[in-house]
Amino acid sequence: MLSEDRTAKSAIRDAAIELFGTYGPDAVSLRAVAAAAGVSQPLIIKHFGSRHGLKEAADAHVLALAREALEPLITGGAMPDRGIADVLASTPVTRYLAYLLIGNGPHADEAFTSLQRFSVVLVERLAAAGMVASGTDHERLATVLLAHDLSAALLRERIIRALGEDPLSETGLEQWRDLVGRLYNGTVLGPAPMG
């Protein structure tokens, strides 16, 4: 029974993420979540206590997926078992993350602050390994890296349409990092020709 409850709980959470990401949490009823998850409304209350509890669980799950995806992006380390594209490939997850980060209010602030703190921890790890130049403001670097990495994830569908390739695939990430690295070190753009 416990494993069935966990399966139902994750199905409810995932249905909520899909619906909340598509329509916004305020526009989605518990009845709609229950129908999408194939469960009853009382089961949602049993597992999450309230609509607010369901929203909190959805927020926490999407932020955990984003942290998992951002770690190798920020550190430049090896790809995890689940590729970044797999973690954030889900359009509902990406839409819900966008909702959390772009919205107004405490949830938007909490979402960004949570990811920014995580990014600072990763930059501190890089600094401890001697991979950050001395004198670099770690918090500023962490915030810039976070904004850069999130832009590829949140604009992913539009980037695919524009370039015809996925910026979060292994090849796409390599090309993205290479071009951005050359852009930042000044080898892509030069001064305008005189004349």
TrEMBL record:
InterPro entries: Homeodomain-like_sf, HTH-type_TetR-like_transc_reg, HTH_TetR. GO terms for molecular function: DNA-binding transcription factor activity; transcription cis-regulatory region binding. Residues 6-66 form the HTH tetR-type domain. Keywords: DNA-binding. Pfam families: TetR_N. The keyword DNA-binding applies. Residues 29-48 bind DNA. This is AcrR family transcriptional regulator.
